[in-house]
Give the backbone structure.
Amino acid sequence: MVICEVGNGSTARFWHDNWTSLGPLIDITGPRGPGVTGLHVDAVVAEALRDGDWWVRRSRSRNRLITMLRECLPEAAPILNSEAEDIYLWKPGNRVASCTFSTADTWEALHPQGETVFWHRQVWFQGRIPKHAFITWVIARNRLGTRDRMRSWGVQGPATCILCNAADETRQHLFFDCPYRTEVWTFFCSRLNLHPPALFEDGLRWLRNPSPDEFVKLIAKLVFQAALYSIWKERNVRIHNQAFRPAQAVILEMKQTIQARLDPLSRASNSRRTDTTLLGTWFNFF
């Protein structure tokens, strides 16, 4: 990210500095460049100028490295006629080179933003339960190791959903169509008087604004993520520990987890509403 704006070439290193916009020339020619061309490895740009031009352009050699180097070099006249000093600048990514270092610009260059997704705020909302949000993120990207995906990788094993034994285990079935999951999800939706769609990605879109009430909206997001996490946890416990719980046990565990999360959120809330609190809204429904 350090570039050199060449003035008279007295300090810019010919081989190692990024002064031609193509990166360090040693990266183009390789370590054999200095030996083949005859210009020592620590030479500055000014030393590569002889008799009004680049020394390498006077060579009659047909060596591939010398030919390539000729094509990389800029015009020599501006450097020969310059009286300015060489300047080193900071250029993160595609931003304009500057003599000022910016931590923010450098971070963005090193960690470019990924693909924009419509469900970002439905997963990483303020007040989320971190482990629930993480599982939701993995599911939203369809990277969870469900049985249909594992079989597509060549892993031999049963394809049937272990929660209902009625259909193949896919993302859509496990988290939306499975009767076990439906029992859990319906309990909360009926209490909150919500009517989510039947497809997974439609459900994520619906979660943007599931209710006009801000408190109910937050509770719905917490319930949605808790349901995904709890169903996946129950599925894994059944497979690995052969322990089976009824849906009512999962519902009870979810209620306790969400209530525990809402307590500090309710205490920290600076809402101007005077009719009820976040935790009070929860108790109105549950």
DSSP finds 14 helices and four strands in the chain. The mean pLDDT is 92. The two ends are 56 Å apart (CA to CA). The beta strands are 2-5, 49-50, 53-54, 87-90.
